Amino acid sequence: MSLDFVSNEEMIQEARRRLEQGAWDYLVGGSASETSLRRNRLAFDKVAFRPRILVDVSEIDTSVTFLGQKLRIPAILAPIGSLQVFTPEAGVASTQAATEFGIMHALSSVTEPTLEETAAATPTPKIFQLYVHGDMKWVEDIISRVKEAGYAALALTVDVAHYSRRERPMVTRYRPPTQRATRNRNYLASLTWETMDMIKEMAGLPFLLKGVQTAEDAAIAVEHGVDVIWASNHGGRQGDHGLGTLDTLPEIVQAVDGKARVIMDGGVQRGSDILKAVAMGADAVALGRMQGYGLAAGGKDGVVRMLEILEDELICEMGLTGVTSLSELTPSHVCKADPVTPPHEMSSWVNLPGGRIR
Question: Which of 64, 122, 63 has its CA nearest to residue 94?
């Protein structure tokens, strides 16, 4: 079943109607002043297209290959903790949506159901995202389960050495399930390049490093044999006053120099955003909040419809930019520009009926 949303703005408004205040704040909020969150969106608003004309764009191919898998659009579903607050099916709904549409799902290690149940829900390859909440024996046990369940890759998140002050849910005293569980966060705080090497070797799978925000760390990651550099500031949910992820993408791509794949997340809301990221060197983007909105609005079908809308936007923008395949994109297709709206988390949709979500 495909829902009849014609715009992702419409879907987000439905998600807002369905979610209680605490769950909504958990989904849309960032850390402290939410400066990083707003810069994520502003970074896209500061980039313009340089379209080429008189190109035959009657046939357009939006697909790419990532981790050996063909993706219908250059996107994956990002790992999100506590998916069960958006839909009872939680991780299974996201995995089913990714399979139905034709992309990959990265499952968070802090969501329901178990990693085995989610893996068994569909036959398609999946990525497992790891938060380190125990010693190396604990890590070994988790990785053994991941491999036994058939996950195609492992992503290690490294930007959570300290849990940030996410004040939107804090002021309403809302605590998501990820915070209610008792965990020893010292293991996350003590991660080093050496422990990353141990986890990477232990996994023996394609390895993604999630949370890279500088060229310096991207270069070190490549030296350590990381397969995929995941440019991310946790959707503006960890460090405050960071740069927008798209702002950091060019330096990261330059530092990687083709020695690893690059994906990014943070602020991606439209097909045009995906096109900008790919033009600036990303192999794919990861969708976090958009996934959450889809789940809240309609479960698995909501996520599928969200992806269909992104695909339609992407096809339209590719045609108007004068490219028929994503491999044709270069940095010359984009340029810096002044944003036309004030930066805020919903700046993609301020001109549509209803304006900002209340």
Answer: 122
Strands 64-66 and 69-71: antiparallel
Asked if 273 contacts 260 with a C-beta cutoff of 8 angstroms, the reply is: no
pTM of the model: 0.94
The whole-angstrom separation of Cα 214 and Cα 218 is: 6
Which amino acid belongs to residue 22?
A: G
Which residue in 245, 205, 243 sits closest to 225, CA to CA? 205
Measured distance CA(356)–CA(191) in Å, rounded: 40
65: which 2 tokens?
């290959």
Kindly report, residue by residue over 99-123, the tens digit of the pLDDT.
Answer: 999 999 999 999 999 999 999 999 9
Helix (H, G, I), strand (E, B) or coil at 196: helix
Question: How many residues belong to the chain?
Answer: 358
The tokens describing 288, both together, are 């976090």
What letter represents residue 8's amino acid?
A: N
How many whole angstroms separate alpha carbon 181 and alpha carbon 331? 44
Active site positions, annotated: 234
- Please report which residue ranges of the chain form alpha helices under DSSP H: 8-18, 21-28, 35-45, 90-101, 115-121, 136-149, 167-171, 177-180, 186-189, 193-203, 215-223, 245-256, 271-279, 289-321
Compute the CA torsion angle 197, 201, 205, 206 (nearest 10 deg): 30
d(CA 152, CA 284): 17
pLDDT in tens, 194-242: 999 999 999 999 999 999 999 999 999 999 999 999 999 999 988 899 9
Tokens of 282: 């990303």
Rounded to whole angstroms, the Cα distance separating 130 from 79 reads: 9
Beta strands in the chain (DSSP E): 47-49, 64-66, 69-71, 75-77, 104-108, 127-130, 153-157, 207-212, 228-231, 261-264, 284-287, 334-336
